[in-house]
Design a protein that fits this description.
Strand 1 and strand 2 (about 50-70) form a beta hairpin. The chain has one helix at about 1-20; strands spanning about 35-50, 50-70, 70-85, 85-100, 110-125, 130-150, 155-170, 175-190. About 10% of the residues lie in helices and about 65% in strands. The chain has 1 helix and 8 strands; from the N terminus they run αββββββββ. It starts with a helix and ends with a strand.
Length: about 190
C-alpha cells in the first residue's frame, strides 16, 4: 500500500511539473497528424472464497501514431496471468488498433476504438492429478468508446469501455468467449 501511495504522489508531481512547463496556457495539439501516443493499462485482482484462491494480473502497453488529425493507428500488447488452485493460464496477444478522436483537441476528448489480433494461450491444468499443459493459438477483438482527460499538454488519464471476444484455434466450441471490460489507464502524447 505504501508503494501505491508513493507512486500516486510521484505521478501527481510529474503531472504538475508538466503543467507548470506550459505556464497554464496549454495548447492542445495531441491528436494532430504526426503526433504519437504511448501508454497502457494494468490491473490485478484476487479472491478467496470457499477455500479457493485466485489471482489475475493484466498488463496492456500500447503505442500509436496519428496518420491524420484525430486518427491514430498502432498496436497493443496484452499480457495476462491467471492462477487458481487447479488452473494456471498465461495469455499474450498482439493486436493492431485504430482510434478516432472526436472534435478539436481540448482538455477532455472522446474517441472510438477498435482492435483485432492474435496470440497464444498456455494453460496448465493441475486438477485431479492430470497435470496437463496445452498451448494454443487464439484470435481476439475489441471495440468500444473511450475518454481521455488531459492533465497537461502531454499526459491523459484514460477510460475505455470495450466489448470484446477471444477464441482459441483448437477449441471444439465454435463461439467466442465474449466480455464487457472497463479499462483505466494512462496515455502520453508526444
Amino acid at each position: 500500500m505504501k508503494r501505491i501511495i508513493g507512486l500516486f504522489f510521484t505521478l501527481c508531481t510529474v503531472f504538475e511539473y508538466g503543467y507548470a512547463q506550459t505556464d497554464g496556457a496549454a495548447t492542445f495539439e495531441q491528436t494532430d497528424k504526426g503526433s504519437h501516443l504511448a501508454g497502457g493499462t494494468i490491473s490485478m485482482s484476487g479472491t478467496n472464497a470457499n477455500s479457493t484462491n485466485s489471482f489475475n494480473a493484466n498488463l496492456n502497453p500500447n503505442y500509436g501514431y496519428f496518420v491524420a488529425n484525430n486518427l491514430a493507428i498502432g498496436g497493443v500488447l496484452s499480457l495476462n496471468y491467471s492462477y487458481t488452485k487447479a488452473l494456471q493460464t498465461n495469455l499474450g496477444t498482439l493486436s493492431p488498433f485504430v482510434r478516432y478522436y472526436f472534435g478539436p483537441p481540448k482538455t477532455a476528448m472522446f474517441f472510438a476504438y477498435g482492435s483485432a489480433g492474435g496470440g497464444f494461450s498456455n494453460v496448465d491444468n493441475q486438477a485431479s492429478n492430470t497435470n496437463t499443459q496445452k498451448t494454443v493459438g487464439l484470435f481476439n477483438y475489441a471495440v468500444g468508446p473511450g475518454f481521455d482527460y488531459f492533465v497537461n499538454k502531454h499526459v491523459a488519464f484514460e477510460a475505455l469501455a470495450t466489448f470484446g471476444g477471444r477464441k482459441d484455434y483448437q477449441s471444439a466450441s465454435t463461439g467466442f468467449n465474449n466480455s464487457l471490460n472497463l479499462l483505466i489507464g494512462l496515455q502520453v502524447f508526444f
